[in-house]
Automatic annotation (TrEMBL):
Pathway assignment: Protein modification; protein glycosylation
PANTHER family: BETA-1,3-N-ACETYLGLUCOSAMINYLTRANSFERASE (PTHR11214), N-ACETYLLACTOSAMINIDE BETA-1,3-N-ACETYLGLUCOSAMINYLTRANSFERASE 4 (PTHR11214:SF368)
Source species: Latimeria chalumnae
Subcellular locations according to the entry: Golgi apparatus membrane
Name the record gives this protein: Hexosyltransferase
EC nos: 2.4.1.-
């Protein structure tokens, strides 16, 4: 119901904004993290670990969290007041006036790229991910050093020949009337991906023409296919399976999905205090 209600909403009020791109020049990499209003603990963990605003090799890195409004009716006003305070302290939250749900994540995607093209179009590259991932930002910077922001880049863990789920009990369920029996176009899933400035520009044009689809990763793949952006698989994106708490593994990767806040602090501590010499990151 929420998806159908918001499906044709191309304009929604921004409750909390940030002028970071107007006040901070020459941002090379913008870390864009999708988060629920309730997930203050995850945002705190990201800020304290891999999401720190920094300069690596002369390249400036900044972050922003994307929020909607909580579905919870109890204490929603108090939660909103806490988010407002969090924003005033950190200046890294964007929040729109729509109700959070799994099927509305695509709406957040659409609003993000609209905001980006209007306010942050000078940023070179974007990492867009979830608030339950570990990210090695230094490895992202190293990888991106070979790419031009004015050329296409859409990289991560690629899903190919994936079909719509027809099991009605699944949160990924898509009825036949909404999507046929053909596979989704190749897309990147599993917690995060990288985009160049040029790819974002093209995707924004596609978003204007292609109806919003409930599965956000598949929707980005549809839009990428429509404007001729090819997906790039990168071995450094580990989006499934168990990863041992080995600092060398985390030093070599770009992304690990499904990480709890306490695990994130542990991983960060292991990496920062490890003196082991590790092999270089796997090539894409």
């Amino acid at each position: 119901k929420d998806f159908l209600f918001y499906k044709y909403c191309k304009e929604l009020p921004m409750l909390i904004g940030t002028g970071m791109c107007k006040t901070k020049e020459n941002i090379f990499l913008l870390l864009v993290i999708k988060s629920l209003a309730e997930n203050a603990d995850r945002r705190a963990a990201v800020r304290s670990t891999w999401g720190r605003e920094t300069v690596i090799g002369g390249r400036r890195v900044h972050r922003v969290f994307l929020l909607g409004q909580t579905q919870a009716k109890i204490r929603s006003k108090k939660l909103q007041a806490l988010i407002q305070e969090e924003s005033e302290v950190h200046g890294d939250i964007i929040q729109w006036a729509f109700r959070e749900s799994f099927f509305n994540v695509t709406l957040k995607e659409y609003l993000l790229w609209k905001w980006f093209t209007e306010e942050c179009h000078t940023v070179s590259f974007v990492f867009k991910g979830d608030d339950d991932v570990y990210v090695n930002v230094a490895n992202i910077i190293q990888f991106l050093s070979d790419y031009n922001p004015n050329e296409n880049l859409y990289a991560g863990d690629v899903f190919i020949n994936t079909y719509a789920v027809r099991l009605k009990w699944s949160k990924y369920y898509i009825p036949l009337l909404m999507y046929g029996n053909k596979p989704y176009p190749p897309y990147i899933g599993g917690g995060g991906y990288l985009l160049s400035r040029q790819s974002i520009k093209l995707l924004q044009h596609a978003f204007q023409k292609i109806d919003i689809f409930p599965i956000d990763d598949a929707y980005v793949g549809m839009c990428a296919e429509a404007v001729g952006i090819k997906v790039m698989s990168h071995a450094g994106f580990r989006t499934h399976g168990q990863i041992p708490y080995d600092p060398c593994i985390y030093k070599e990767l770009i992304l690990v999905h499904k990480v709890l806040p306490n695990e994130l602090y542990l991983i960060w501590s292991l990496i920062k205090h490890s003196t082991e010499k590790c092999s270089r990151i796997a090539k894409a």
